[in-house]
Amino acid sequence: MSECTRITRRGFLKRAAGAAAAGAAFPAIIPASALGANGATAPGNRIVMASIGVGGQGRHDMRALMSLPDVQMIAVCDVDANHRAEARRMVEEYYAGRADRATFSGCAEYNDFREVLARDDIDALMLAPPDHWHAVMSVAAAKAGKDIYCEKPLANSIPEGRAVVDAVRRYRRVFQTGSHERSRDNARFACELVRNGRIGKLHTIRVNMPVDNHGPIENQPPMPIPQGFDYDLWLGPAPYEPYTEKRCHFWFRYILDYSGGEMTDRGAHIIDLGQLGNNTDHTGPISVEGEGWFPPDGLFNTAMKYKFQFEYANGVRMIGESKAPRGIRFEGDAGWVFIHIHGGDLEAEPASLLREVIGPNEIRLGRSRGHHVDFIENVKTRGECKAPVEAGHRTATMCHMANIAMRLGRKLRWDPENEQFINDDEANRMMIPSMRTPWTL
User: What are the percentages of helix, strand and coil residues in the chain, rounded to 5?
Assistant: First the structure.
């Protein structure tokens, strides 16, 4: 396993001076990039990062972050040896190419995330494990003094999400939820139209979330655990179940022990935009109801078809269905605007809405140079990211509320301040995560 030592600009110069004093051979010409000249970022000014959970989405996030000139990715971690070997190869090939070298060996490889957290030379983490790991890892990372980019949904239950918020605030960490749709210019412009009254008084938010054709599937028999896959650590805080291929990796999202299906997958993007447009990032609805079709048997048990409705204290309703096109529509008494998810194209009625200009004294939501760039910029300035921890938690809470309401098949009243269902012990019990020993928050 190769390790990478963090060398600051001060340390680099100190080593150079020491070597010269001792008569050691040292290059007469120091590359300008080593000192931060010629537009390069000096080593001491770089954010040193590690990536934990480097499957498909994790590798995407890792690539986006390490491509930034002020980031140095020095470690990768995954319970699947194939995933982490591929991620390490990507890191080392990238830095070799950037330095115009044949090889580069500055990336460590880990199976257990706790070893990464123990390193004091790491400033920030990218977390993209399965959803049931988000809270445990985020809380541990905050305690370890790391800033955090964590994939959505923020957590796999409502109490876990609140624990993440509390830890991030207590340890004063920068946190970016991976809800990247809210960093798109068009999405932010559409929400500015809504919040500045361009569609009149907002009364309805319509959410379209078609479910991709991934199930249901029949139960699979227990299978041998693949070599190089630490299945027990993959399960972590989740209840023990025998290994089977479609329990893990991409497919975990359709099993309630690990995720919440489409509701917490793309729902964490689309509902999140509803929260931004409704100016409710800091709170949530006061009721939820819905109905869904959950496969009665088989391995997958999340809702494959659904309808749901939230009501806010300001009278706005959010109505969602498993239908196309994927996106969100804000409706007011003077028009509407629709944001297409994955691409961010806008539609509006009247069409002239899309030519509106938001004035300097109106509500302006700012723009992002990219979701990953925004995270790194705020790690440096200690500012608040475009998808801060509280907003991520409130969005994830709504996803979990909808799943609980659909499973119970009745309307539920919600107290967004105390984060409890009102006079419904059964619904409140369904919020509480069950963690396998020895895992706790």
Answer: 40, 15, 45
pLDDT score for 236: 98
- Cβ-Cβ contacts under 8 Å for 440 (sequence gap 6 or more): none
Q: Does one domain contain both 233 and 148?
A: no
Q: Are residues 105 and 192 in the same domain?
A: no
Q: Domain range for residue 129?
A: 31-181
pLDDT by 10-residue block (mean), the chain, 441 residues: 38 37 34 42 80 97 97 98 97 92 88 98 98 98 98 98 98 98 97 98 97 73 96 98 95 96 96 98 98 92 96 98 96 98 92 97 97 98 98 98 98 98 98 92 89
C-beta of residue 54 within 8 angstroms of C-beta of residue 128: yes
Nearest to 389 by CA among 59, 20, 135, 34: 135
Q: Pick from 166, 181, 196: which residue ends a domain?
A: 181
CB neighbour list of residue 436: distance below 8 Å, 6 or more residues apart: 235, 236, 237, 238, 239, 240
pLDDT value at position 51? 98
CATH no. for residue 306?
A: 3.30.360.10
* pLDDT at residue 215 in the model: 63
The structure tokens listed for 237 are: 């805080």
In terms of domains, do 188 and 261 share one?
A: yes
Query: For the chain, how big is the Rg over CA atoms in Å?
Result: 23
Interval 56-115: pLDDT, tens:
999 999 999 999 999 999 999 999 999 999 999 999 999 999 888 877 888 999 999 999
Read out DSSP for 350-418? Answer: SGGGGG----TTS------S-HHHHHHHHHHHT---SS-HHHHHHHHHHHHHHHHHHHHTS-EEEETTT
Chain position carrying tokens 């379209």? 208
Q: CA 264 → CA 135, 207, 260, distances in Å?
A: 14, 13, 5
Q: What is the CATH number of the domain that holds 125?
A: 3.40.50.720
pLDDT for the residue numbered 43 = 60
Domain endpoint, select from 133, 158, 181? 181
Give the span between the Cα atoms of 288 and 261, in whole angstroms: 18
Nearest Cα to Cα of residue 258 among 12, 52, 436, 57: 436
Paired sense of beta strands 346-349 and 335-340, if any: antiparallel
Any residues with CB less than 8 A from the CB of 381 and at least 6 apart, and which? none
Q: Could you tell me if 159 and 200 lie in one domain?
A: no
Question: Does one domain contain both 336 and 349?
Answer: yes
Q: How many domains does the chain have?
A: 2
* Residue 200 shares a structural domain with residue 118: no
What is the CB neighbour count within 10 angstroms for residue 109? 18
